[in-house]
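Fold this sequence, please.
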Amino acid sequence: MSIANVTQRSGTQTSPTAHRKSLLLSAVLLLSSFIVGEVVSLFHAGGLTDPNNHPAVFVLYAQSGIWTTVHLAQFIVTAATIGGLLVLFHALNLPDGMPRLVARIGIVSGGVALALTAIVYAVDGVVLKRAVDAWVSAPDAEKAARFASAETVRWLEEATGSYEYFLIGLTLILLAALIVWTARVPRPIGYLLGLTGVTYFVAGWIHGVAGFVPQAAIPFLLGVLSLLISSVWLLIAAWRMPDAAEIAPGSGSPTRRNDAGAAATSR
């Protein structure tokens, strides 16, 4: 028997379909965070300057009067993205057993990723800003020590950011596995989320080993694109899904899978 056809287990009712409203909320969070994130990135100091060229980029950071505000906005955007993934775990409406256990692990992973995100943007938006300001304004005799302090903060940002990427990647891969496994939403969405998770792992490894080098741009952009496509696909699938009230309970109608992999009720 298919997992999507299970409607009763351990005395509790489990619907064979995902929660439409939760799916819509997840898609809206993912899409809106992408759009707002792109807008916010336009105000990030540094531009095309190599972020690993610390003497040059630290001067630009020190000159930015909105640095902390921009990073607070980036934290909110990233938190909304992770929130969209966590809502999607709930929206899948998984049965008891292994699927529910995998979902719990994914939710914990997402929660840890959210905590690391807060640390990353606190370090980058507050600590690094104060460190580069202190370096720029320090007398010549103190500049070397102040610069070393700012670099240490930068390395801490790269380290925590690397593990943040690993945890987000793990969350995405677990979510992708559940979607492909249960087909509560079209399976290609799961494949795209899985690809996004892999790119997060690759980008996290590069950041941890070499810092903000150009080589991380390709997997990062690929991940952003696949997450965007999967979010749009999810929104369309949720919009076209019938409300639970439209499916007569206890009708005994068999479920079927459409070509995209989503469970549907035969009529």
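The beta strands are 8-9, 12-13, 255-257, 263-265. Residues 16-242 form one domain.
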